[in-house]
Amino acid sequence: MVEKPVPEEETTHLFWRGERSVREIQYEARTTVAMIIASFLFLIAMSILILDDLNYFAGFDAYLIAILFVVWIAFWIDFFIRLRLSANKKSFLRHNIIDIISLIIPFARPFLLLVYLGRLKYFSGREGKNVRARVVVYLVSFALLYSYVISLFVYSAERGAPGASITSYGNSVWWAIVTITTVGYGDVVPITIPGRIYATLLMLGSVLIVGAITGLTVSWFGELVNKAHTRELARKNSNHDK
Q1: Is residue 175 a contact partner of residue 151, using CB atoms and an 8 Å limit?
Q2: What CATH number has the domain spanning 127-242?
Q3: Domains of the chain: which residue ranges?
Q4: I want to staple 157 with a disulfide (CB 3.0 to 4.6 A). Which of 2, 123, 152, 195 is the partner?
Q5: 3 state SS of 62
Q6: With contact defined as beta carbons under 8 Å apart, do 38 and 75 qualify?
Q7: Which residues lie closer than 8 Å to 146 by C-beta, 6 or more apart?
Q8: CA 171: distance to chain centroid?
Q9: Which stretches of 181-192 are DSSP H helices?
């Protein structure tokens, strides 16, 4: 079945978000803050469960499991509502890969906080300052959130392993910091297979972060040089006219 094209006046393009309908934009404007709060609740509940020695159904932990389940269902509902309201289903799926991954793997959901930030008005513009602000916020947020979540998972995998050096969450955070900054002291390292898988993911993430920071810095310096060159040309032309 061929999908009917949506009239031009009922759609809009929002930079990196692809083709979107007016109804989808209006829906996101009403639900973005709620989804951000829900994502934070998911992250907090997940953190407590992991740091509480994984006693999942002991006392208060049962309520945390319920919170995770309810929030996860809410994310599914939100995703399909936005899919239904989208102007182009293929474009929607192509531009919401993180949503799809987080629905399949619930513990990846905290990273969708970065996507929700992109829905906020300040970070959705086309101007250079908006793009740079979004990139800076994304880099800082991704580095902090990625390090935090990976350190939780590594601590969960390593704390009970014989001969493990990461036996406290503090050690896990320290390891994550020296890894994502590419320092790598080697004083504490994961020894379990799951721990090393998480470590590999953190290393790959750190490469992306360093590469993005390098590109952003080069772009910023290039812009400064261009502005200085433009001012110098304007000054020379002004003197020549005199």
Answers
A1: yes
A2: 1.10.287.70
A3: 1-121, 127-242
A4: 195
A5: helix
A6: yes
A7: 111, 180, 202, 205
A8: 24
A9: none
